[in-house]
Predict the structure.
Amino acid sequence: MSLELRIFGIEGLPEITAGVPLASMIAEAALGQSQGLEDGDVLVVTQKIVSKAEGRVVAIDPADPDAKRRLAESEAVRILRRRGDLVITETRHGFICANSGVDLSNVAEGYAVLLPLDPDRSARGIRDEIQRRFGYAVGVIISDTFGRVWRRGVTDVALGSAGIAAVVDLRGGSDALGRELVATEVCIADEITAAADLVMGKASAVPVAIVRGVDPSWLRESSVRAEVVRPATEDLFR
Amino acid sequence: MSLELRIFGIEGLPEITAGVPLASMIAEAALGQSQGLEDGDVLVVTQKIVSKAEGRVVAIDPADPDAKRRLAESEAVRILRRRGDLVITETRHGFICANSGVDLSNVAEGYAVLLPLDPDRSARGIRDEIQRRFGYAVGVIISDTFGRVWRRGVTDVALGSAGIAAVVDLRGGSDALGRELVATEVCIADEITAAADLVMGKASAVPVAIVRGVDPSWLRESSVRAEVVRPATEDLFR
């Protein structure tokens, strides 16, 4: 396990619109900063710019107070709770979140941004393109901001991943006293994403961060959907 | 907002027992490494060593398969769910977690470690002692490893804090397009804690990490209990 990690915010990306070559824009912005890019870096990319590049933006009537909630419900496979304007839903991907991830911030008035259709695929696409065009073997995580059931305040979590493990299974390893560890499947994708948010903020124009120094054994094929999304059969609270 | 963050794992602490001067041991271990200590550093300290230093260790019969569950229930104010050996409880602090945080790993056989009685106070004690004896103004977070309702894999979260904000309220700020942001109270204490876990691991002897480069405006008095613990009245799922 590496004892030092560095996190760099990436600035200077232009406004992202449907069809732009996002992976190249990210790599060029990273290479334009002093930290550059290195094999083994993990790029955390906010869902907002991925959705915009993929054209997951829809018109919404700004005069209709129910428009956002109806859109959120149309993006859901299940509605878990309602309170006022807020609706807690299960998305097609299996994420449980507020308003199906539908977001009206950082987008022109009259439009809403939806989650990517397949965030793992989005991450693979960016990872593959950076490998092919720039020659760097990086991990990619697509991030979004979710609330938590028992704790106040939002944190960033991983929606999709490529080239970096989502969950690392430490079961069967030994603790520092040589006794067996149990129940230590760690969601490092969410921990890396949370770390990246510390240099991103919500309002600043820093939609990408590089996390450098993760354990090399974590660099492998992965899927947030397969590793992190908890099936309803395992769920004690749905 | 700082665009670069560095995270350092702190090694070389001896085995922690009740009554040791934990703050001094942490500061001396940090100062013995090349990164040293700086004003504005945030020290993330695993609950396990805090509890041991505070004597929150109890004997438990290793031959009794129900001993851990009974101990967990005795540490709870409420039991939310049971499944097999696992009990999801609300602790006296208001945390919702597995087994009231009672832990048998990284402790001698026949003993269990309980959560600190008041983790915010534990954090303040370490912060104050490092300020007084070593002259550094640092933030301190006490961390533990919790599961999540909707997502597989555990992540580290903050149990207590001092000198570093737990939740930062970005409501009323503007997004990058100048529109109002809503619902952006970010739990940076949990994000810092998750980041620190990336250099700690579960089995390695790295019970403390330094997070360097957090936004200076986040360095203030704080309380995880007051800022992060969600009251039952706000809770949609309890």
